[in-house]
Every structure is written in C-alpha cells, then in structure tokens.
Amino acid sequence: xxxxxxxxxxxxxxxxxxxxxxxxxxxxxxxxxxxxxxxxxxxxxxxxxxxxxxxxxxxxxxxxxxxxxxxxxxxxxxxxxxxxxxxxxxxxxxxxxxxxxxxxxxxxxxxxxxxxxxxxxxxxxxxxxxxxxxxxxxxxxxxxxxxxxxxxxxxxxxxxxxxxxxxxxxxxxxxxxxxxxxxxxxxxxxxxxxxxxxxxxxxxxxxxxxxxxxxxxxxxxxxxxxxxxxxxxxxxxxxxxxxxxxxxxxxxxxxxxxxxxxxxxxxxxxxxxxxxxxxxxxxxxxxxxxxxxxxxxxxxxxxxxxxxxxxxxxxxxxxxxxxxxxxxxxxxxxxxxxxxxxxxxxxxxxxxxxxxxxxxxxxxxxxxxxxxxxxxxxxxxxxxxxxxxxxxxxxxxxxxxxxxxxxxxxxxxxxxxxxxxxxxxxxxxxxxxxxxxxxxxxxxxxxxxxxxxxxxxxxxxxxxxxxxxxxxxxxxxxxxxxxxxxxxxxxxxxxxxxxxxxxxxxxxxxxxxxxxxxxxxxxxxxxxxxxxxxxxxxxxxxxxxxxxxxxxxxxxxxxxxxxxxxxxxxxxxxxxxxxxxxxxxxxxxxxxxxxxxxxxxxxxxxxxxxxxxxxxxxxxxxxxxxxxxxxxxxxxxxxxxxxxxxxxxxxxxxxxxxxxxxxxxxxxxxxxxxxxxxxxxxxxxxxxxxxxxxxxxxxxxxxxxxxxxxxxxxxxxxxxxxxxxxxxxxxxxxxxxxxxxxxxxxxxxxxxxxx
Amino acid sequence: xxxxxxxxxxxxxxxxxxxxxxxxxxxxxxxxxxxxxxxxxxxxxxxxxxxxxxxxxxxxxxxxxxxxxxxxxxxxxxxxxxxxxxxxxxxxxxxxxxxxxxxxxxxxxxxxxxxxxxxxxxxxxxxxxxxxxxxxxxxxxxxxxxxxxxxxxxxxxxxxxxxxxxxxxxxxxxxxxxxxxxxxxxxxxxxxxxxxxxxxxxxxxxxxxxxxxxxxxxxxxxxxxxxxxxxxxxxxxxxxxxxxxxxxxxxxxxxxxxxxxxxxxxxxxxxxxxxxxxxxxxxxxxxxxxxxxxxxxxxxxxxxxxxxxxxxxxxxxxxxxxxxxxxxxxxxxxxxxxxxxxxxxxxxxxxxxxxxxxxxxxxxxxxxxxxxxxxxxxxxxxxxxxxxxxxxxxxxxxxxxxxxxxxxxxxxxxxxxxxxxxxxxxxxxxxxxxxxxxxxxxxxxxxxxxxxxxxxxxxxxxxxxxxxxxxxxxxxxxxxxxxxxxxx
Lengths: 755, 488
Hints:
The complex is a heterodimer of chains A (755) and B (488). Chain A is an alpha+beta fold and 755 residues long.
C-alpha cells in the first residue's frame, strides 16, 4: 500500500465503491435469483415487485439492448437468465428502487415459477454424462506407460480438495452514471476494468469508448473480482443507462456468497511410480475440475493445474489430464493460486502414500526429487536459475530440521493425548498469465510543473501493495522522494486494453511499464538540462536525490527547477509506455512452450499440534525460506507471505463450502463459513528472504509474490497427518481437504461409532 | 405510549444528535446513510466480521463505560443517551498511537477491515486497567481480516503494549474512574481531547432523558442483546415493535443470597466473564465463556437472551444446565419458577407463555468438593457455534460420585440435560470404566442430526470424547487407571 493510502485507511477515510458520494436522486438495485439449480423458467411475474412502494423499474433479459452475454473465451453465460436456469443464485431480474431495502423487498416479491430439470453436482457424473466445459487437455512428457515397469513402487488413489469462498471483506459492488453522450461511466470493484468495459459495451450495444470504467481500490480480491465483478457492474450499468439515473448495486454478504463462484473443488486420480531409492519416475494424474454451470475462467485455471502438476519436482515420465466438468453449481472462478494449489496437493498426497509404501519419510522423497538447472518441465520449458534446492537446504539448516524432528519425537513419546507432526512443503510457481497475450500492460506518467507526479497504470490496488511498488519504481527512476508521486485510480479512459490485475503479474507488468515511461521523461529532462547548462551532453546529466548533476558536479538545478525549466522549454512531461513480457510462448496444440517469465521457489517447515482426545488441531509454526528475488518492498512482501500462508492453511484445515442435495449453499453466511480469525492462525510464521537472489526478468531484480505463499498452506495438511499417524499409526486417513476436526476425529477412531 | 416515537438523543463522536430514525433500525445504516460516516464498513451484517465496530459509551450509575459493539446489530433504540464513537471520532490531526502502530507494522493491506480494528483496539486501551499484548490481541477476536493473516496486527499490538504505559500505572488507583482514565488516554494521544467533556455531556443528556416506559409484552417484543434475534428479523422485513431490556437496570447483575447465585436476565456475557462473584464460584468461567462469540458479541449478548433464543448449542444454557439452574418467569404481577432442564420443550419451544418473560436465572452454589468443567469443540476454536459442547458438575466423595449434572449441546433439538447419564453416574465409583459406560448411556439419550456443524456420527463420537475429556481434565489421574475405550 502506498503510504498515503495507508494513512487514509487507518482513519477510515479511504473511499471504497460503496462509500462514494453519489449525485442526488441516485437509485439502488437488487437482484432476484433462481432458487432452483436447473430448470425451465415457466413464468416470471414482476407485477408484485412493481407494486412495492419506491420501486422504479424491474429489468429482465428482455430489457438488454445489446447481447445478453458476459462470457469471456467461451460465450456461455447470460447476464440474466432467459428460459433456463443453471444454478441456485443465478440472476433473473434486476429491481431498481429508491432504497436498497425497498429494492430487496421487491426482488423477493417477484413471482418465479421454474420446472426443475435433473441437476448434476458431482464431477464423475458430469464426466460420465459428457457434461464438459471444454474438451479434456493432456500434458505429457516421456512415456508413462512403459515407465511403470521400471518402478519398484507404484501407488495410486484419489484425492479430493474442497472449495473455498473468497471472503474479500468488501462485497461485490458497483455504481453507474449515465453520460450526456448516451454512454455510461461505471465505478466498479473489479480486478478487470477492461473486461467490465467490454462486457458493459456488449450488453448495452455501445462502442467501448462510450463506457468508462474506473476502479478506486478494492477491499480485497484474491481472484474473486477477476471475472465475477463484471456482472454487478453490468447490471448497474444497464439500470443506469435505461433509467438515466445513477444506480448503485452492492451485494450483501449473503447474496455475494450465494451468487458468486469460489475456488474449484477437484477430484483427482493419481498414480505415482518410484524406484527403490525414491526417485519419482512416472506420474499420471487426472484432474476432474468442478467448473460449475458456466465456463468463466475454468479452462485457464485447469491449464495452470496441468502446468503445476509436478510442482517442484523433476519427474521424467508424466501424463497429466485435465477435465473441466460442467455442473449445476455457481461458476467457480479464480482464487489465489489459480488451479496450482489443487495440483500441488494431489502430488503431495501421492508422495505421502509412496513414502508409506517405501517405508521412508515423505521429506526424503521430496528432497531427492527437487528441481535443478537442466531439468525440464513436462511442457518442455527448461529449468533455469533454479533455487529449489537452495531454498530447501537453507530451510533445513536455518530452522534446524533435525533438532525439530527430534523434539517432535520426544514430545510424542511424552504425551499420550497430544501429538505433533512436522512436514516440509517445497513450492514452485510460474509467474505470468498462461494466456500469453495477457502479459502486457500500460503506464501513463504525468509530471506536473510543480514537480509532482501522477501515475496511471493497468494495476488495480486491492491490498497487495502494487501501488507502493510502482511508486518505488518511479521514485527510483526519477530519483525523487516517493511523496511526490501519486498513484491514480485505475481507469479505462487513461489506459486502454488492460489485463486483469491477476496471476501475480501486477507489480512486474505495471512496474516495467512505469519504468519505461519514467525513463522516457528522464531522457527528455536530461536533454533540457543539457541545453540549459550549455556545457554538457545529455548523457553527462544525472538526477540524483532531487538534485541535478553534470559530469558528477552539482548544478544549481533541482528536480523542481528542472521540471519547470523543461516546461518553459516546451518539453513534454507526459509519457505513456507499454510492457510486454519477452520470450514467452505456448503452443496449445502441442502443449509445449515456455509460458512463464520466471518461477517463484521456496520451502516451508510446518509444525502441527493435535489434541487426540477432541480431534482439534493447531498449527504451531510455519517457517519459510522464500525466493523473493531482490525484494522491492520487504514489508509488502512479508505481508503477502503471511496473508497467503494463513489463507492456504484455512483452505486445508478450516474452510468448508457445503451444499444441500438440491445445490443450495448451506454455508451461506460468515456464521457457518468460517475463515481464520486472530486466534486460529499459526502460532508463529517466520519468513527468511533467500539471499543473493537476483531475478533479471523481474522489476529491479525482484520476484513478485502474490500467489505463491498460498501454496505453503498445503504443508499444514501433511503436518497434521504426521501428528495423526503418531497417535494412530494404522489410521486410514482419506486424502480429502479440508481436514476438519470432524474428519480428524472420525479417522482417529475408525469404525468406532458409539451407538 | 406515543404514536410517533420521540427523537433519540445521543452523542455521535463530537456532535449532539437527535434523530427520529425508527428505534428498530440499525446504527450502521444511520451512520453510513444518514450521517455519511463511511469509515464504519458493512462486511457481513451479522456480527461476524467486525468491520462495523464502534464504541458505545454509556453511563452506568456514576461511571462511564465504553464497549466495542457491532453497529450492524445495534438498533437505534439502544443508542439513546449514549456516546457513539466511530473511527471518525478517534481521528485527530495526525495518527493516534494505535493507527501509527498498525501503519508501522504493515498491518494494513486492502484496508476494509482496518477502521474496525482501530476502533476495537482503541476500545481495549480505553477499558483495560493494565495493557497486555495477549489481552489486546484477544480484543480483536471479532475482527476478521482476509489479507494480512493477522501476524502484522499482532506485531503492532506488541509494539504498542511495550511502548505505552497506562498513565494511571503509578497512581494508587489501579482502576481509576472513567473521568480520570479519559484524562490519561487523551494525554497519551489514544483519544482526542473532546472526550474529556463527554461525562458531563452524558450526565446532562440523562437528566433531560425520558423515563423508562413500562413494558407491555402485548404491544412489543422484548429484546436484550439481539445478537441472534436481529439476524432472524432483517431490517427490510418489517420488524415487530421492540422493547429494549437493556434499559432495565433491575434485570442486570449477579448476586449471591442464601446459597443461591442469581443472574439477572439482562446481564451480558461480558459481565459474567468479568464478574468476581461468579469467578469465586466457577474459577474457570472466564476461560469457558471466552469461547462464547466475540468480544463485541459478549458485550451485547445476555443470559436471558441465550436461554430464550434456545439454540440447541447455546453455551450459556449448557453451562447453566450443569449448574442445576432455575429460571424465574414473570407475567404482569405473576411470578413462577421452572427448572432450566424443563424450560426447553422442543426445538425453539419453551415452557413460557407468549406474554411471559424471563427475569432471572439462578443456581445453588456448588458444594466445596464439587468440580465443574465445560468443553466445546467447534470448527473454528473461537467465535463459532459448537459442534458439540458439554458441561459437567461432579461431587465425588471417597471415590464415589455423590452428585452430578451433565449437559450437552448440539445433539438434540434443545440444550440437553443428560438425565439418564446423571442417574447412572450418581452413586457409581469414579473409574474409567464407569466413565466409558456413562458415555455409552449418553448415546442412548441424544438424537443428533447431520448439518453444517457436523454429521450425526461425528457428533455422537464427539460427545463420547467430551465426556472423557471432562473426567480426564477434572481427574487427570484417571488416565493411568485403565484402558480407554477407543484409544489405540
């Protein structure tokens, strides 16, 4: 976070979408959704809603002037359902009234009759019935079929990983204002302003330049506002455009939880073969992804699962198959890690089982197979500048693994009802959008005559600190105080054709674009200074700490004077720049290529404590060695690390999304869906920044750090399994996340159901 | 009663406010919509996230007390005569020490939860006699943050607690009255200067205020903390007219008389946690009730509310059942008593006439050799409803259980008294075999269902484990005396 923003936040003065002062006579929208998971809409009677006092209008699919379509790559998602509904919570109608309360009351009054059709919630059933979002994809290398016979041990099984609700603290929100030209301005809490612009234009039948989308800041995103902020913005835009009045739409927590998708649950079948020394030779995995009712980002998320199927390990023979299943749940969507965590979890389960078969500890297999330079990923990319083994070794030494293991053994020997477990979790995560075309961004830098600077980029600030990093980039290039630099809101009128702020790419793409734009201006300023000083060539001019030097000698020019002088010299003090990540490509026909600019590496030691009487667990410590490159902003990076780990542990041990047999969400409030609170986090998180870790492709040698920390949370699952095994070595523990107190207790006391 | 409600008068931050907003509407909406104080955020509208935390300052007798509360669950009827403090009311020119510590520790990411955290943490420093990091961290138990993972917040709290000393630390009065306390808090920058005049202004407000109206249950629904009631009756549904029991000082307090401890129905859980009277009877009450809700919920939720709400896993009800409690009911001038275990008739069904209401609950003081224990397992250890909770009271003499109470929540339609199990226990020897058998007897009494809190199988197993946990906690030496059912 930029310092000024932080100042506003602690004072409650930062304006989020729902906080903005709107013009008088603004209206409020509410949504009526389907109560049936799959069915034909027999009738939709809006008359009772119109009879509610204070109601202006009710809009259904028929009122959409353009295309009723919010789909991105696959056009399968109407904004408002027409003749069929495909999930409980699917929007049917928008009600606009003079207050949000009135609009909600009216939305409930709409009479909807739906004839139910058979619904599918289970991925195996969806696959069997051919209900797929896209054709299956296969990544392979070597030849798994012939490799099995070289293996001393082959294990196989099934792994389930659960869904996860984003719980960004700010719910989905937008407001829209009609423009005098017949267009619309939308202020939206979205990670994808350009996507909102495109969809609003499509819905309203307008050219994109008639739609401006602005994002002040987000109260958290985590991927949940990458694709799924669009709907609410489009609904507010439709209502505002039709009524020629400002309209605000803010979902309640309950609405947000029931209408939006979550992290994809996966069901995965695996087969892993190793030699007697524990080298992983062959790995076959099939990911069944529960995509929900429409495509959303599911195919891209599944693709990342395939990219990360082998995590941090070198495995010569691999066949990874991804199947995106269409079910009648709300469309699942991006969530920190984007399919990576699900894939990593499967392989770690396979390793755990293989370790039992080989009679070794999982960490021995993990360590033996870590990636190093010269290895290749199953999709063909060569491993370069790999720091996997370094991170592991430093973690072992720095956190004294052997002593830790001994302590755990002793503790377990001493305590009958409490056990501890320790697990290691190495991670490897590719940085770039896997859709190569998205790896581009723009920056627009204005230097004003008083020396202050305003910067617009494609980046959306959602707490990840991207603005602080961009400010740091500009401050370094200009060599001026960061306080001179303001990060503007994100607007489609200033930067066109933005990628979403996602895939951990925000700081790199926008940092580089900002760097390029600032360099342009610096060159022009140096020219102006040289002209003014008369004796020096531009390359002899240097701006350092707000002062101007010529051939190393101080001059009378300061930053402010130089800027002012350049202005009177009629020099442009604005620059726009575009950044496109070089040297990345991927061929989706052969599934080979080099899709990532670089990889994030690291290793965590995770220690769990188990109360074997009650089945409750706590994570005592997560100790990490992580490759941040040369960190651009250590405080921001530490915050990303800690927050990501806690979210990851939450996914593994606590957070459980549950539906009833009719596809209705049961965990539909924060009273039933629990996220970590201040008491349930790991007792300790230590983060060591790997030293000597330059990263040339990153901005100023840094590595970006949004998603990778989440993956360390997976270690919590295996630390807990170790503790469970210490209490009951014969326990049969299903590979099923989250490992809730219920699953723990039932596994510790198997077949022991009191009657 | 008047047709149009009288405007509620209170102090909002620095301002005197008089409003005719309906008493049933929530303070959060008043703040954001009417006053445009948008630093108070709506995150869940069910008291789970703390983004809407404000401080509610009320005169109690001659002293003033500030409590962090969820403004999404605080009806306007409760703010009359009070001082409501939002984040805007804490802001001065620069940053307060709390704000600065959060900034320095990097404890601000998206910032949406941040104002609530500043308010809750400031509330801790306002209320606590001594400033201790662990307790200060606990004061954030009702504030969810999805970005930071809380570690940076804990660092901020640690640095605050080591940098700041209560100004009254060296004075003889370790727990000074609010007026003296306010002076110290203003001095060290935790509160802005206008707070110094608040006690006087509140007293003035009280003198001008209306008297408490007599309660007529035929015309309105009595509501205490409402921390669950307001979830079930949403603002846009049109609510019944409410009568706020918090105005009835006579219904609050914990007193011992004639070997009986009586708790007024409008006593809050926080008051129970803080009660020295109760702590003398139940030494672990703070720990046990600390598992109930969050700081802000405990500040509002009441004993009577928890009983009348009759949630099958109600923590307070489970504890009181094991204390052999009795409920005092009133209807007009009529009074009657009913044993708590007979009060719960079925799911949300009570032995209570529509116009009858709970005045108090009481229980006989446990004998000296009695041991009491409470167990609760929930998905999240704190701030969550129990999967199963259970309480026990045991009197053991010469190795024989002379007297017992055992209750369990989450496994029946009501907070459940395990009468058969108690019958079995009483007169039995205190052995592990008896404990195991008691757990088996309990299985015959309960009827758990599968729901979001867990499967029926799990709840059965968990109850067995909690029965074991009761005995192993109270009599640790039992563990070595025989083989435990289910242990490997």
